Amino acid sequence: MAIAVTGTEDTSAGGRDTAMPHVVMVSFPGQGHLNPLLRLAKRVAAKGLLVTLCSTDDTARRIAAAASTSVGALAEPTRVGRGFIRFEFFSDGIAPDDPVRSDLDFLMASLRSAGPPALAALVRRQVVPVACIVNNPFVPWVLDVAADLGLPSGVLWVQSAAVFSIYYHCRHALAAFPSEDDPDAIVQLPGLPPLRPEDLPTFLLWTSPYQILKSVILEQFGNLSNASWVFANTFDELEHEAIEAISHRQVIIPVGPLVDPPPEEGGSKEIGGGEIKADLFKAADESIQWLARHPPRSVVYVSVGSVVVLTEEEMEEMAWGLKQTGRPFLWVVRSDARERLPAGFAEEVAAEGIGMLVEWSPQERVLEHEAVACFLTHCGWNSTTEALTAGVPVVAYPQWGDQVPDAKMLEEACGVGVRLPAPATRAELQRCVKAVTEGEMAETIRRRASEWKEAAAKAVSEGGSSDRHIQAFVDEVTKRAAPAAN
Question: Is Transferase among this UniProt entry's keywords (predicted)?
């Protein structure tokens, strides 16, 4: 479905109707990729552009199911600030019910084959001409599609500037990394502290079983020169040295933290679009009512994201550890992990009123709730920036990929939490929760968390460092689109 959206623009000759500049944003079909790209879309649209967010047909079905709506309804434009957001989708070349979809190697190969012609056709059929295409990692071929169509393009890096720098230096062989011949190599990069093997994104280690992910991530750096803009979901105040250092080789534009502003601060009224979601799982909104029944700073919130899988032993230790903290807890346990819980645990803690287990949560709203005392997190970058934005102390429990350096940043650079050693034990979990919620150390952590909350809010506020960068992008796209509208 193609939608024409027009707006009014003042000129020296008076007002006239023009088609809004139109940006197409293309996301890999994963929750951790969709969320930041949608939030960037909202901020861009709010400044007067039409944004069409695209992903695969399977993603469309999952978003529609989670939102209890139809796929067709997602194509309708929704007002966000001075602009609009809508969705369109394309085929990934895999039948909806084909179980091979869960095979990442197969999915990536199919996306690379079916995606480019499908996306090119989608762009060509738009009624409002497309002025620019923006993608996120894992779909690097989008930059090639944009180049073939003669359109400027951008990339939203959905991890930290530090991790961008690590991958960039690895891709271009600008530093020595651990290898089979030198497994203990210390990586020295400008703007970053010395990195031991255990500090690196795990995909870069020669022992990683996920070499396909390493290949796809590094591939993004192969055609990055095609992009007119490289955005990052971070902010200058958080990663100034890393951003400045890598920008001598590749300019990155911090536009984060990409989170939806809380309604009570008036941000959503200004930006709008709070009702627009790209959730692949249905969030348990009743968790907010559950939180409201508990005192301020009392609840332990636990989530390891949409991909991480904990072992049965870890699940058992975490379950009894949470119960033995003596604090109420809200725990996100996906349906595929329920069977690894101790028998009857969910029912027992619910009956006692001390715990609530949900399959998915409205995480930003949860973290903003005054009842939350701390966040036990896998340290995915979205969760990391959401924790910093909410000013919530963390217990870091990274598993793989960029979660490892993210945890190091939260604990050592930001000073907002402690690291839970893996594999988790109930005793260590209790110790870590106590460390960030009770005593002098906890007071220091809470103070640092509050400072980062203030810095994050300042970055995205009108005239803040990230807001200025988004405005500059909107101005440039509008300028480039003007000749086509005349």
Answer: yes
